[in-house]
Amino acid sequence: MHDVALSWRQYRLERRMFWRNPSAAFFNFLFPLILLALFGAVFAGDQEALDVIVPGIAGMAVMATTFTALAWNMTFLREQGVLKRMRGTPLPPAVYLSGIALSALTNAVLQLALVIAAGRAFFGTGWPQDWAALAVFTAAGVVCFAALGVALSHAIPNFDSAGAYINAVFLPVILISGVFYDVAEAPGFIKDIAEALPLKHVIDGLSGALITGRGVADNWEALAVIGLWATAGIVLAVRGFSWESRRR
């Protein structure tokens, strides 16, 4: 119970620190909604296209609030010596890291709720048709992308280069994985690459939950691919983790 109480306090601290950083709040919440509004305006009246855009933006939001945010944050905390100092305090490392992880989870859930509400209010997608599938694929996406984000932070040599490393992964993935279009209509080689990436399968799961009503049993292959990426991400995140700066 003591560790639970400490984790809760650390989580509350992380939330206060997040809201005191306007740029982080913008990227996590407004940026996906701006993209949704822009593409929603472009495809206004084309419900088939909107049914692709809304779950696509929802999947991108999950990736942005976990993969991108944690890759940035863990690199910053490591290179600024925060992790090293925290390691030397009485606060258990698991408690500190759990506060960061829970904050990222909160951002993902809030962002997903905003996208779903906007989709219902403005783009005719309605409320989710399968809430269980929505919960399962959201949780799977959060775990997968959070682990991959921490793993990527190990490869980033310093905070100045973090943006280049993260965007070199994030931007191609969202462009290939069907955030803004139906992957089924893409050229064969693009489709093959998308099938190998986890975001496409997160989007498929969210699309099933939000649009088509296809549940977990109908998307088990997508869940399996996400699980494989999550496993690889967790292994790499744990094996490469360092409390100290990479600077010499």
Considering the chains and any ligands shown, give keywords for the structure:
248 residues; 10 helices; mainly alpha
Give a verbal description of the structure.
- The chain has 248 residues and is an all-alpha fold.
- The protein has one domain.
- 77% of the residues lie in helices and 0% in strands.
- The chain is built from 10 helices and no strands.
- The chain has helices spanning 2-19, 22-42, 47-79, 82-87, 93-122, 131-155, 162-176, 188-196, 198-212, 220-239.
- Helix 6 (131-155) runs parallel beside helix 10.
- The chain starts with a helix and ends in a 9-residue tail after the last helix.
- The model has no long low-confidence stretch (mean pLDDT 90).
Number of helices: 10
Mean pLDDT: 90
**In terms of structural class, how would the helical and strand content be classed?**
mainly alpha
- Helical amount among residues, as a percent range? over 70%
Beta-strand content: under 5%
Radius of gyration: 18 Å
Number of strands: 0
Question: How would you spell out the order of helices and strands?
Answer: HHHHHHHHHH
Amino- and carboxy-terminal Cα gap: 40 Å
Structural domain count: 1
Low-confidence stretches: none
How would you characterize the largest beta sheet?
none
Report the principal-axis shape. globular
